[in-house]
Amino acid sequence: MSKVQLIYTGVSQIVGGPELGLLILSDLSHIRQVAIVCDSRMEYELSLRAAGTSLTERLLPEVLCSINPRMTGEHYEVLFNSIIDGQYKALLVDKDDLTLTPIRASDAVLLAQVAKLDIFMEESLFKRQSVDYHANKNKIALPVNALSMEMLRHALDKAIEEENYELASMLRDEMRHRKKDA
């Protein structure tokens, strides 16, 4: 399996949508990027770490990392290996015994930031999901399969309201595909 190493570059809010944000991860050369949907609480958690406040030293991720000295990049890494129903699937990989522990995608990014873990994505998934990287841009394209059903419904309503029937058709097809697979 080939994989691409990613770095966390920041968080962006979804304007005009539900209370969600996007965690932006780019490849090391800043050519391509992916966006992972997160809730507003995770946006806040990551902003605390970015600000470097001492407030975080008593929060759960930091406490768990301090009592588990193996929770370092020497022993663990994060791997994004698929996307299902608009949600990236992440694994915490124990590099010593190759144990794979499923973890929520946004939590995996937070843990990687706290414990200084490397983040990887399977290369085929990265090629399929990534878009061109643009630093300091306020817009990012998201593949339709990276949207939750709630986000798809919201986007469909907006596409119909704006009379963008081609986009509405594509969104409707994605929703039908997911319902059929459920």
UniProtKB/TrEMBL annotation:
GO terms for molecular function: nuclease activity. SUPFAM superfamilies: Hypothetical protein TM0160. Pfam families: BFN_dom. It comes from the Bacteria. Residues 3-133 form the BFN domain. This is BFN domain-containing protein. The lineage of its organism: Bacteria, Pseudomonadati, Bacteroidota, Bacteroidia, Bacteroidales.
